[in-house]
Amino acid sequence: MSDPSLLVGIWNYMFAVVWQWWGIIALVLGLMRVAPMVFPASMGWVEWLQRERQVFLSLAIALFVIANFQLYDQCQREIRALKWSPFDASKLDISKLPTSPEGLHPGQVWNNGGVISIAQ
Q: What's the rounded Cα separation, in Å, for the pair 94 and 52?
């Protein structure tokens, strides 16, 4: 397995953050539209929030930071789960690996007579 290129990694990161961020922003905008119909008493703060662009901009920045933290936290949980998951060596089948290093890229593994070797 090889690591993705830097540009692919940046694209995946931005997509994940923006996807969560826009979802939260859409929810806030939707609530701003629905709140006065469901809760007529909330009309005052909704109108104030719509007039005060600086407040909404601050809210958007805060939600962007939250989306970043959620993505970071999710990745850290996945890494910890992989790190502490037990490895069962009895399920490792090296017979399907190539038996010679010809044609392999550096870092790929091959079956060297029952021993796993790494191509140079």
A: 64
As beta bridge partners, residue 111 has 116
Tell me the per-residue pLDDT of 99-114, one tens digit each, with 9 for 90 and over: 888 888 888 888 888 8
For the chain, the structural domain boundaries read: 6-85, 89-120
Write out the H or E segment, with its range, that includes residue 74. helix 53-84
Packing angle, helices 43-51 and 6-38, rounded to 10: 140
Structure tokens at 7: 């540009």
List the end-to-end C-alpha distance of the chain, in Å, as a whole number. 15
Residue 74: how many CA atoms within 13 Å on its side-chain side?
A: 10
Site of tokens 């850290």:
76
Contacts of 116 (CB under 8 A, 6+ apart): 94, 97, 109, 110
pLDDT tens, residue by residue, 37-89: 787 787 787 777 777 767 777 877 787 788 788 888 888 888 888 887 776 66
| CB neighbours of residue 23 within 10 Å | 12
